[in-house]
Amino acid sequence: MSTEWEKLLRRPDECCVGCGKNVRFGDIVTTLDISEAGFRRQDWCAPCFESSNPPAFSFWKRRVAKGQPRRRLDIAYLCELFKRLEERTDAPSLRLRWIAALLLLRKRMLEEIGREVHDDCEVLLLRMRKEDREYRVTDPRMDAEAMGTIEADLGRIFELEEGGAPKQ
Hints:
The protein is 32% helix and 30% strand. It is α+β, with helices and mostly antiparallel strands. The chain folds into 2 domains: 3-64, no CATH class; 75-166, no CATH class.
């Protein structure tokens, strides 16, 4: 991933670019704009975003309640889960392993060393950071419903939900 994208994917700023107030809680709007200098990400409180209507290539809104803890993902546990799912061949385990692999790739715990295609399915060849062992992970070709099921399963596994509401 390029360093430009890494900057864009960083945690949001804590100040609104419009008024300078803290935007860690409440309604937050993040904009992404493209200029000659490259991509620019900005965080806004909802009133400033609506009143200034900034030019943006894309934007997204989110709400963070005050006192609501942020999600935490135990990476070591996710690595162990990924490894333990290697021998499993049932469909839910294959889907969970695929999602775990993608999360670990994003967190840079796994690195992609190649790709193959077998029976019209993509197979990622991966290596765990600081290990020499190669892992093969086949794309289970999930639809949106299956992705939602896996997301809910991961939320329960990693205790990212409390009382039915996701932690932020």
